Amino acid sequence: MQPFRVAIAGLGTVGAETARILLTDTEMLSARAGRPIELKAVSARDKTRDRGVDLDGVDWVDDAATLAARDDVDCVLELIGGSEGVAYDLVLDSVKSGKSVVTANKALIAHHGSEIAKACEENKVGLGFEAAVAGGIPIIKSLREGLVGNHVTRVYGILNGTCNYIMSVMRETGRPFDDVLADAQRLGYAEADPSFDVDGIDAAHKLAILSAIAFGHHVDFDNVHVEGVRHVSPLDITFAEELGYRIKLLGIAEESDAGVQQRVHPCMVKADTPIGQVEDVFNAVVAEGSAVGTTLSYGRGAGAGPTASAVIADVMDLAAGRRVPVFGLDSSKLSPARTAPIASLTGCYYLRLMVIDRPGVLADVTAVFRDHEVSIEAMIQRARNPEEAVPLVLTTHETSETAIKASFEELARLDCVLEEPRQIRIEDF
Ligand code: NDP
Ligand code: HSE
Known about the structure:
Radius of gyration: 24 Å
Distance between the termini: 50 Å
Shape: elongated
Oligomer: single chain
Structural class: alpha/beta
Bound molecules: NADPH dihydro-nicotinamide-adenine-dinucleotide phosphate, L-homoserine
């Protein structure tokens, strides 16, 4: 049987572990693929760097771009990252040269997924990107193939391991945000630029991909509503706990009258729900389908092993000749995205104001909510210190995003409100 010959571009956290598995579990993988799997060539920037894996006998290539043209390679593994530049060129050139491609690069798929899918169809090659969403959880296969007999109505979950790790460790230990982020970087969880993680962009890349598969539309990253976790303070984490919630960065895609809601933002979820219990670097994705009902997938969302596991799974599919359309449909059949604006959202909210503790403040604040027809469910104001700002926490009954926005604009103008008001949406799953 002809061997399936692969090349790896990028030997960092994901690429080095992928190479290690390919070189050490060769027999098992070859037996399962039904043909030998051979690592022919690798490329990274620094040839002298110790990758923790013995690459003797594997060609080293200084210029990753040349992998696309090699006759002795069937499949290129793009594990460099970035939506443009070398990753973009390598993937498209490889596809155009008739090679299948595996990538872990969610930024690339979120920005150029439709173009790459079309190129794969034209060149009759496969594209694997399981590792691009939720690390080691096989959610792409599950949604695109396992749930193919369903109309999916909603898909949501914890899609960024770094943020979940930060939120979990801050809650458990009280350690500051920057310290915990540095740990996540050291553990290989964070993106090369960690602002992609903490500002919600990475989760938005993943959500845009999941939404395209779930609802059969072109990837629409530009219209995903994105908020990150930078503004979640230790105070919010403490109040959430007191109210029986945990704070999670969620990605949510769901059908609504206004189109498909696609949003990424911190949420308060009940601590005793399955999503509330997902801690550390773990991710979880819930998909709701017309026939299956609710499914929950859980596993490590980042790091060398989990991500390499997903990359290898794609290599195996391609080696065995299993190829499905990138987003589950021929790209000509994908509909244009109709993404609902965040202003169309309704729900319950946690609100935190930092106010001067003096008579009349509560009346001023509640008058604003009354004027915008925001109904308050509960309120906490415990500290008492006329010299300093004290937190005033409120939770609301169901209200509209526009009412909260208008209330906040007015609250920010009150002289008793000393800092920008903060809100976290409450999701009742
Ligand atoms: P790293 O930063 O650890 O590794 C990137 C690798 O790319 C390095 O080996 C680097 O070389 C190499 N590289 C950079 N520029 C070039 C270039 N021009 N030509 C050849 N090689 C180049 O990233 P990760 O392994 O963490 O991530 C890789 C991809 O996987 C990204 O798309 C990321 O989003 C995705 N991903 C990462 C996960 C994780 O947990 N880390 C999880 C899921 C997806 P050198 O080492 O010499 O500097
Ligand atoms: N930086 C990403 C995360 C890697 O933390 O989830 C996995 O995609």
